[in-house]
């Protein structure tokens, strides 16, 4: 199998995890799909930059995160923000939880976290990366990963227990597709 075929196969295998990561970052399926599409387009254009195919998952997440960060910056310059709880997909509809209210409360609580805290929780809990892998992917020290993760968990716990805090809205907006 040629290198382009191997790359394409590896890329396709990463799509479910990449979409899950995008959905956790933006909180909306349509925007997550747009982000994944942009990520795949960029990955295909820059495929020669990936030296080791087994590292494709982290490489793709880094591309997606950079695209997301760019979108946040564009959104901040526009000054338009919307509360994720109004536009978020209902996670409770995709897998029937035993307590629908708890799932809804959890989604709302996660939306109150800073993007850095959401990202750390996602990489640790959903993607199951260890501290070192997270540190390498985000290009931050392991100690920073550990402290951010501890603060994210504590913040999530306090929001879930009703101690609440101001919602940090996710910037939403999608570029026009042709």
TrEMBL record:
One of its GO terms (biological process) is DNA-templated transcription initiation. Transmembrane segments: none annotated. Pfam families: Sigma70_r2, Sigma70_r4_2. It comes from the Bacteria. Gene3D superfamilies: 1.10.1740.10, Winged helix-like DNA-binding domain superfamily/Winged helix DNA-binding domain. The keyword Transcription applies. Residues 15-76 form the RNA polymerase sigma-70 region domain. Keywords: Sigma factor, Transcription, Transcription regulation. GO terms for molecular function: DNA binding; sigma factor activity. Belongs to the sigma-70 factor family. ECF subfamily. PANTHER family: RNA POLYMERASE ECF-TYPE SIGMA FACTO, RNA POLYMERASE SIGMA FACTOR RFAY-RELATED. This is RNA polymerase sigma-70 factor (ECF subfamily). It comes from Nitrospirillum iridis. The lineage of its organism: Bacteria, Pseudomonadati, Pseudomonadota, Alphaproteobacteria, Rhodospirillales.
């Amino acid at each position: 199998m040629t290198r382009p075929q191997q790359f394409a196969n590896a890329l396709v295998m990463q799509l479910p995890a990449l979409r899950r990561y995008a959905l956790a970052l933006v909180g909306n399926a349509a925007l997550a799909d747009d982000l994944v599409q942009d990520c795949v387009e960029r990955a295909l254009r820059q495929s020669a930059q990936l030296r080791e195919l087994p590292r494709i998952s982290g490489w793709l997440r880094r591309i997606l995160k950079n695209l997301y960060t760019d979108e946040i910056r564009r959104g901040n310059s526009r000054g338009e923000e919307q509360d994720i709880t109004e536009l978020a997909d209902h996670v409770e509809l995709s897998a029937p939880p035993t307590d629908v209210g708890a799932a809804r409360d959890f989604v709302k609580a996660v939306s109150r976290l800073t993007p850095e805290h959401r990202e750390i929780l996602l990489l640790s809990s959903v993607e199951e990366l260890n501290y070192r892998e997270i540190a390498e992917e985000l290009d931050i020290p392991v100690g920073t990963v550990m402290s951010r993760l501890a603060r994210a968990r504590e913040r999530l716990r306090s929001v879930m227990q009703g101690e609440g805090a101001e919602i940090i809205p996710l910037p939403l907006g999608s570029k026009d597709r042709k």
